[in-house]
Design brief:
single chain, 449 residues, two-stranded antiparallel ribbon
Length: 449
């Protein structure tokens, strides 16, 4: 009897097992296909703002991701978004999907952060139109972010700047803004300031006073050429400590042959002084600071300091506004950030033998053609770079129409000390061209392909 009961129990269990197998595992053969086969065009993210389509079925869990990603665009999520003024719909759905594993899907939104604009100032009078335009052109060739040009010019040049800038191609003009200002001085005799050194050069001293709505600014002389993106020197603003409000490069690297260390009859910064041809400024800090000086014990604001300082030292200064800046930072050394000579590379760095180690290692970042070397044959290495940038058609290939011509023409300068080190002049140009190509062509192409 017991054996009979056991046989019956086993038979019942076996029957139940067959039923479960039939309705469960075997019946699944006609069910939905495996997960990896689900997808196709209907599961792809629609293109938006130039974004490329991405298949949701490209990685495990895609079916669940697709269902969850569609939820924020309808129902309670949509109503809540409307109440709070938030963007909903396709953009919101894409954003929701970005939190899942993998980098296949990237957030795409129509609203983007306000683009940072770099501010570049220059002062041009007399015959400096062509030289200034070449400088502005060099800034645009290699830079990535937009630039706002602040151009201070005397009356004859102002209208010419406007006319020439308006002739630049739209693809170029879309990357910059510009304002043109008359030459003006808030204190003292304007004619006396104009004649302080080169025509109108003293205008740079008054930039913090005139450009009251500008927080930070890069000032350069007209005879400067950018051989790498302005973005890179602009980033140095973030290297300022709490007391620093301006940055310049040393006037010379070797005190024995430096001008200030040998001839100056007034106080100057450090051992060799500083050169003001490239000057990065936090204008907000300059306007707020009380500067120490030899004038009065309590200190003065920037604007109140300029004229009395000039009156005291006007019979002892040779290089005008640059000498006044040296005097100011002699008494306020904690306010100055010193950047390497590669950011203000002049003939003095190579005409007596190479003495800028940073340029030897990394290449020239900013070329400063003082002594008029762009317009004579005394330093042909400088002139080669200037002529190539001036004559380069904006929309040509930079490697073919800019880099290679410079490289070839350097062969004619090897009989000069500066011409014997072509890699110093070419290294950053080539690097900057590759960077611009990657940023504006390769990445842009990936986004819009």
């Amino acid at each position: 009897m017991r054996i009979h009961c056991k046989v019956v129990a086993i038979a019942v269990c076996f029957g139940l097992f067959l039923l479960l197998y039939f309705f469960g595992g075997h019946g699944g053969a006609d069910g939905p296909p495996p997960l990896r086969q689900v997808g196709g065009d209907r599961d792809r993210e629609p293109e938006e703002d130039g974004g490329s389509p991405h298949a949701l079925s490209d990685y495990p869990g895609s079916d669940a991701v697709a269902k969850l990603a569609r939820k924020p665009s309808a129902g309670l999520g949509e109503r809540a978004g409307r109440r709070e003024g938030k963007a909903v719909g396709r953009g919101a759905g894409v954003k929701a999907r970005s939190k899942f594993p993998g980098n296949v899907i990237r957030p795409v939104t129509r609203r983007r952060r306000a683009e940072e604009v770099m501010h570049l100032a220059v002062v041009a009078c007399g015959t400096r139109l062509e030289e200034t335009l070449t400088m502005l052109k060099s800034a645009l060739l290699f830079s990535l972010k937009k630039i706002k040009f602040h151009i201070f010019a005397d009356d004859p040049l102002a209208s010419q700047f406007e006319e020439r800038l308006n002739q630049w191609p739209h693809s170029v003009s879309a990357r910059f803004q510009h304002s043109i200002y008359p030459i003006s001085f808030s204190v003292g005799d304007a004619q006396e300031w104009k004649k302080l050194f080169k025509p109108c050069a003293a205008q740079r001293l008054f930039l913090p006073v005139i450009l009251k709505d500008v927080d930070s600014l890069l000032y350069v002389d007209t005879d400067v050429l950018f051989l790498r993106p302005v973005d890179d020197i602009w980033m140095l603003l973030k290297s300022f400590n709490d007391t620093q409000l301006a940055a310049m490069a040393p006037e010379h690297e070797v005190p024995k042959i430096g001008w200030y260390s040998r001839f100056a009859r007034h106080p100057f910064y450090g051992v060799t002084g500083v050169n003001s041809g490239v000057m990065l400024m936090n204008l907000t800090r300059i306007r707020r600071t009380v500067f120490k000086s030899s004038l009065i014990p309590g200190g003065l604001s920037w604007e109140d300091l300029l004229h009395p300082l000039y009156q005291k030292y006007k019979n002892h200064i040779t290089w005008g506004d640059q000498d006044l800046l040296n005097i100011i930072f002699h008494y306020n050394p904690e306010s100055l950030f010193i950047f390497p000579c590669q950011w203000n590379y002049r003939p003095d760095h190579c005409m007596y033998g190479s003495n800028c180690k940073e340029a030897e290692e990394d290449g020239v970042s900013i070329l400063h053609g003082n002594r008029g070397v762009y317009h004579d044959d005394k330093q042909p290495a400088f002139k080669v770079v200037y002529d190539a940038i001036r004559d380069f058609p904006f929309e040509d290939n930079m490697f073919q129409s800019l880099f290679y011509p410079i490289q070839n023409k350097f062969l004619d300068t090897v009989n000069t000390l500066c011409g014997r080190i072509p890699q110093v002049f070419l290294k950053q140009i080539e690097k900057a061209m590759r960077k611009v190509f990657e940023e504006k062509v390769v990445r842009h192409g990936k986004v819009h392909k």
